[in-house]
Design a protein that fits this description.
single chain, alpha+beta, Serine Threonine Protein Phosphatase 5, Tetratricopeptide repeat, five-stranded mixed β-sheet, 9 strands
């Protein structure tokens, strides 16, 4: 069902397109010629157009240009164009039925548009989410996104809502709520008339005609189809007219007015031939073949079907090839040519198997049996008599075979389950051993953490102590007794904290593996939100936007305190080296058993040869490396240790003056967790 809906939606998009395949190819050729002569934002636009136009003709080329547009937009730092490139590539995947990839790309586009406050582009991408869920036949979710997009578009001035209204009508149409569908199609038509958008007017009229035809109200359907034709003539839309005449022919066929049906289908063929629309020619030619089969002109029907088959094979339209083989089977069955019917049916099943991965052998066996019945009535009658005599024996054999097959299946399932349980147990034991072997090193790292904190804080507090003493001296000379007492208290507090940190440093260096490690399944979003809130004021002081796109469903397996430390160090690191007015984004990519957390900034970046130094302990100063050359603070070496303690890994990608991406990958499932 899902695949059928996808194909139907994509077909509709092609039908309402104003450009024929030949015209699209001309645009692609023109864009290729202009590509070497453009730079900057204009180059991104050309690459995006190449992605868009190839989306209807060549999937691989569309993906190639889409990825080039993303890379170049990222290189020049144009955020809105980067979001638009993600959106375009997402649409290519959506139209090809690769729904999850499309959703991932749309999410990235939405994140960027929210950061740049590009409400218009955000609304259009939200509409695209609805398209994907409609293709997946998830109608409630599709409606949720379409209505959200409609609200966003309605709140913006000068944004056309007719396409979204039509899409809402499509959802109700697939749910067979035809009156509801008509309600939104008419709203779309009204909006299209308000802005005089002829393409949307034609699309709305086309949808309304289809609903009335489904409901059997042929007179109303005919009236709206004639209006569609007038609009497409006014718009000089020959491709649309070709579709209109095709649909008008089908409408007359449904009404039983066969000669008018043939006339309009042939007019459609003439226009499609001039537009080099070979897929359209194959479709209309097959429809004519079916009409001639109804008229019992089987020779003409077979000739047209053969012509349609040749074209469909040449353009690689395997769905049309499948349909034509079925039509040829029906024609030759009606023509009382069982041998040819069987041949075409075999071809039909072979193509169907390649498209839908279904068992073809049983179907072929069935059609061969029917063929033998038609060809050899006398032999079948004799076989039937013998079969009745031996029915009890055959029945017993069938029962034995069935029981044997069932027993084999049960044994196979049991063996499979035992093997899976054995694999899972081994995996659990291996992870337990790894955890035990790492505990000593892990706890040493925690002790080192406390030592580093003590070392790093000791200096500033010593300075505070000195400043307090100097303040006391000045205040004494000024005879400000009240302030003098406060300064004495500050000095005393600093001495106490300094002594405490001295003791903490000595204790940490003397311990051997006494720190606990409490791994558990954690919801990621609350920890990210808490960490971002922690740095809210610091970011605000530099006018830095902190953003996060973390789903509530994302979980990781880690020590909570360690994970908080990891997140805060990464965010703090990015804030230090992000320019005023910049942005920091937190994104996640979920896989089967892992979650990758990306912290993306547009800061000063890091040179390649300095990246490894970020993870090295400065033994002379007992401090860890950071993005600075000297190496101050906790830095990233501690983060690296903590990530490894949580069975994860860290990766850094950066370009000087273009920002950095810090990625940590953690487990989302652990041991025998489901």
């Amino acid at each position: 069902m899902q695949k059928k809906v996808t194909l139907l939606i994509f077909s509709i998009l092609l039908l309402i397109s104003k450009s024929s395949p030949a015209q699209i190819q001309l645009k692609i050729d023109s864009l290729k010629k202009s590509l070497p002569n453009v730079t900057g934002e204009e180059k991104v636009r050309v690459l995006r157009d190449l992605c868009y136009y190839n989306g209807t003709l060549n999937f691989d080329s569309a993906v190639l240009y889409g990825n080039q547009a993303i890379a170049y937009a990222n290189e020049i730092g144009h955020r809105d164009q980067l979001g638009a490139a993600y959106d375009d590539l997402g649409s290519v995947y959506a139209h090809s039925g690769m729904h999850e990839s499309a959703l991932d790309l749309y999410k990235k586009a939405i994140t960027i548009f929210k950061n740049t406050n590009n409400r218009k582009s955000e609304a259009y991408t939200t509409h695209n989410f609805g398209y994907v869920y409609l293709a997946k036949a998830d109608y409630p979710t599709a409606l949720k996104y379409y209505f959200k997009a409609l609200k966003m578009k309605s709140d913006l001035d000068g944004v056309n809502t007719s396409s979204t209204l039509n899409s809402i009508g499509q959802v109700y149409r697939y749910e067979k709520q035809y009156d509801k569908a008509l309600e939104y199609y008419f709203k779309a038509l009204e909006r299209a008339h308000e802005i005089n958008n002829l393409d949307d007017i034609s699309n709305s009229l086309n949808n309304i005609e289809i609903i009335f035809r489904i409901k059997g109200d042929f007179d109303k359907a005919l009236a709206f189809r004639m209006q569609t034709i007038e609009v497409d003539k006014k718009n000089n839309n020959d491709y649309g007219l070709a579709i209109d005449y095709n649909n008008l022919g089908e409408l007359y066929d449904d009404k039983g007015e066969v000669q008018k049906a043939i006339m309009y289908l042939e007019k459609s063929l003439e226009l499609k031939a001039g537009l080099n629309s070979e897929k359209g020619i194959a479709y209309t030619t097959e429809r004519l073949a079916k009409i001639y089969m109804k008229l019992n002109n089987l020779e003409k029907a077979s000739s047209l079907a053969q012509k349609s088959l040749t074209i469909a094979k040449a353009v690689g339209d395997r769905n049309r090839v499948l349909s034509i083989y079925q039509t040829l089977t029906e024609i030759h069955q009606a023509w009382n040519k069982p041998t040819q019917a069987l041949t075409y049916y075999k071809q039909y099943t072979l193509v169907k198997d390649s498209l839908f991965n279904k068992d073809k052998e049983l179907i072929i066996s069935d059609i061969e049996t029917k063929y033998q019945i038609v060809k050899k009535d006398a032999e079948n009658a004799l076989l039937k008599a013998k079969s009745e005599q031996q029915s009890e024996t055959i029945k017993q054999k069938n029962i034995l075979v069935t029981v044997s097959i069932l027993a084999f299946i049960i044994l196979f399932i049991l063996a499979f389950l035992l093997f899976r349980a054995y694999q899972q147990k081994n995996r659990q034991n291996l992870l337990l051993l790894e955890q035990k072997s790492e505990l000593s090193e892990l706890n040493k790292t925690k002790n080192r953490f406390f030592g580093i904190i003590a070392h790093d804080l000791r200096g500033p507090l010593t300075a505070l102590q000195g400043i307090s003493g100097l303040l006391c001296y000045n205040i004494k000379k000024g005879k400000l007794d009240n302030l003098h007492q406060i300064a004495l208290q500050v000095e005393e507090s600093a001495l106490k904290v300094n002594t405490l940190l001295d003791n903490l440093l000595k204790w940490a260096l003397s311990q051997e593996g006494s720190m606990p490690y409490n791994a558990q399944r954690l919801a990621l979003k609350p920890l990210v939100d808490e960490s971002l809130y922690y740095f809210k004021d610091m970011a605000a002081s530099k006018d830095i936007n902190l953003n996060a796109e973390i789903s509530k469903e994302v979980h990781v397996y880690a020590d909570k305190d360690m994970l908080c430390t990891i997140l805060r160090n990464l965010i703090n690191n990015s804030i230090k080296f992000t320019k005023n007015g910049g942005s920091i984004d937190l994104l996640t990519v979920s896989k089967k058993e892992e979650v990758r957390i990306d912290v993306i900034d547009n800061g000063i970046g890091i040179e390649d040869e300095k990246i490894q130094k970020l993870f090295v302990l400065d033994e002379d100063k007992s401090t860890l490396g950071t993005c600075s050359e000297k190496g101050t603070g906790l830095g990233l070496a501690l983060v690296d240790d903590f990530v490894r303690m949580n069975h994860g890994k860290i990766d850094v990608k950066s370009t000087p003056n273009h920002g950095s991406v810090f990625s940590i990958t953690l487990l989302s499932r652990y041991f025998n967790e489901n």
